[in-house]
Fold each of these.
Amino acid sequence: MVEACWTTFWRNISMLELRDAIECGKLLLHYQPKVDFKTARTVGVEALLHWPHPNRGWISPDQFIPFAEKAGLVHSLTRWILRAAVEQARQWKDAGIELGLAVNVSARDLEDESFPAEIDTLCGAAGIARSALTLELTEWDLMMDPAKAEMAIQRLSAIGVRLAIDDFGTGYSGLSYLQKLPVNEIKIDKSFVSGLISEQRSIAIVRSVIDLGRNLHLVVVAEGVEDQPTWDSLAGLGCDLGQGYHICRPLAPKALTQWLSSSPWPATVMP
Ligand code: G
Ligand code: MN
């Protein structure tokens, strides 16, 4: 599919433009809350990337990350995201707002041997606890080069960084990595969550993933919570955390700070 889109992408947006956007800070990070079903508090935010393109409007990461990977730009992209997101987390911390931070990373980042040490230095310099940072990886990322991924993940875990499996249930990787790897969190893909009200099969899948998570002592997050019935159903099934448009869209930092102070799901504010 990447191959098929490649020409179109190339015709409309050049790699030079993408490189320029990454290197000159033209990409934006928005943040989407993860809330606790039991305490009704926002416990963290996921940093999500957007590219406000002058001619093509907002381009979502799904549209350009495959190309950034192809062009070898992912390392600089992830480094930029991590630096910006950790700096934002530091600002919230300085304001007394306690929030975990989740950042999406890709298989290519795990290939970089200096990645764990860089994250360690970054958190240290910002005064952010390593355990406040969650790296989200898909099953696909773990499968690309399982031996390398395992080594990198063991090193990241040794530093104290948390690991989440994103889009859980959509990969083809089996479950053996849950046995081997220090995973902390699984995020049920929104394709299952959106069917929760109407499709028996989706309900069975979501219930089973929540049970699996509970038995393995993992935090289970439902992504794509878009309405109240879905929220109620997940709460009833014992899901830990929810994320989605019903709670809050991804917001710019200032808007998120305002949302936190007025929403029914406030963050914990330190005295
Ligand atoms: O792959 P990952 O789960 O990190 O994807 C997050 C993407 O999902 C972001 O682009 C975000 O804007 C989008 N998103 C967040 N909440 C919702 C939601 O409730 N519904 C849908 N359809 N998309 C969502
Ligand atoms: Mn994610």
Amino acid sequence: MAQTPKPPSERGIGAVAIRWHGSSLELLDQRLLPGEEHWITLEGAVGVAQGIRDMVVRGAPAIGISAAYGVALAARHAGGGDWKAEIKQSIRELAASRPTAVNLFWALQRMEQVFHQCHSLDEAAKRLAKEAVAIHEEDLAANVAMADHALEFMAPDKPMSVLTHCNTGALATGGYGTALGVIRRLNEEKLLREVFADETRPWLQGSRLTAWELSRDGIPVTLNADGAAAAILARGEVRWVIVGADRITANGDVANKIGTYGLAVLARHHKVGFMVVAPSSTVDMSLASGSDIPIEEREGMEVREIRGIPLAPEGVKVFNPVFDVTPASLIDAIVTEKGVVHNPNITGMRALFD
Ligand code: MRU
């Protein structure tokens, strides 16, 4: 693992999603952005699980990090009785919060391994907190390493425009970003002309979070409706579509925010590069292909209305899968902190992750 990188604040990154205080966890309520910056303080795993389910915190790595802190809180505040049973129950509750991002299960598995080595509650409280902080710091280091690998791979010779989907920045990760980390680095190196940010219906991660995060950090962003992506790519200015991932399977298929698959089809049609950027904690070599990934479906209300304002006839039937699967054949590169899988397939994935 790379050295601990500079903290986000020293890199000019304004957005922070997760603050750990030892006996409590603060989550920036992402449901209220960009209008309000409100922090929620949590002292137990049940509250963290609820926060993940309700999207107070979201984005695959940030979900994993928050869950890890949730386990640490469970140990810190366990009662005097059967502390092992209490922590196990907390892990189960956290695991049931959201199904698609494998970072959640990866982080819980790491926490569980440490938990099984502990002989007393006091030891568990100390070691689980330390492990959660390590997961958080390692994610930040991985973000920075991915940006290094991506720039080396793209080798841009002049400033370029890129298009992204959803939010993959400081709000979704340990603090720098996956796809948005690469975009940040392009900007730091003066190699970014402009980022087009899909608004990302229905939850609007692109308009509410990405446009907010990039604007406050002075990165040139243009917001577009999802349906405008084809027209933008047809103009020929965008060189790369850069997105994150929630789960990557052994053959290189990628689950990411709904709409990603369509973008990959568009990118191939317009001969635009399609890059997926994700830490190795997003890779799930136990699943053969994307068809094995559990895809979360959320309430129809998220499509029918926005903050109580109706956008559709009351009660109309809605299909609301919040992730889709992009087949490996449409992906030019998967960038992780371990390196780049070019034209991903099972052989390339195994070379890096087995
Ligand atoms: O439903 P969300 O907001 O948790 O979905 C987030 C995404 O799909 C991101 O693109 C993905 O988690 C990568 S975040 C670095």
